Amino acid sequence: MSRARGEGRLVPRxxxxxxxxxxxxxxxxxxxxxxFLDAAREWAPPRVAALASREPRSSGExxxxxxxxxxxxxxxxxxxxxxxxxxxxxxxxxxxxxxxVRLVERPDGDLFPVFGLDxxxxxxxxxxxxxxxxxxxxxxxxxxxxxxxxxxxxxxRRASGPEEPVAMAGVGRGK
Length: 175
Hints:
- The protein has 175 residues and is an alpha+beta fold.
- The protein has one domain (21-160): Alpha-Beta Barrel (N-terminal domain of MutM-like DNA repair proteins), CATH 3.20.190.20.
- It has helices spanning 34-39, 46-49, 97-105, 127-140, 149-160; strands spanning 21-24, 27-31, 64-69, 84-89, 92-93, 114-117, 122-124.
- Strands 1, 2, 3, 4, 5, 6 and 7 form a 7-stranded antiparallel sheet that branches.
- A hairpin with a 2-residue loop joins strand 4 (84-89) and strand 5.
- The longest helix has 14 residues, at 127-140.
């Protein structure tokens, strides 16, 4: 009784809002929720669905998933990478979708961000082409924003407060 329904699990059930999402050059990332897993019961990979019973290792930890690849030249060839957990961006471990966005959008970021996925797979996208393609992808798929309202608000709050450190690869997160 000390925590709200849906809290305290690595993969929560949301009651008051939809899952957070982020679109980057046609790569559709989302925070994994039990709601989404319920809807995808027949086609969710077992390794992703198994995360639903795990407890988080640290406060604020969540599962960021490369959920879909929206058709765009910038991400051509990565169609088979959907439904994979994102572990790193540019060699840095992430613990949330907000971490992923902060690393992708940092001013000193790599020209070709590298998304490290479960199983050792990687997705690399040209930053300039992703930015140029973003509006076209949003229009084609009739999506109002490249990020969910809740994620946008969370990033705004974090930008105005002290920044939480993002762990370097292999540090602070057990595999």
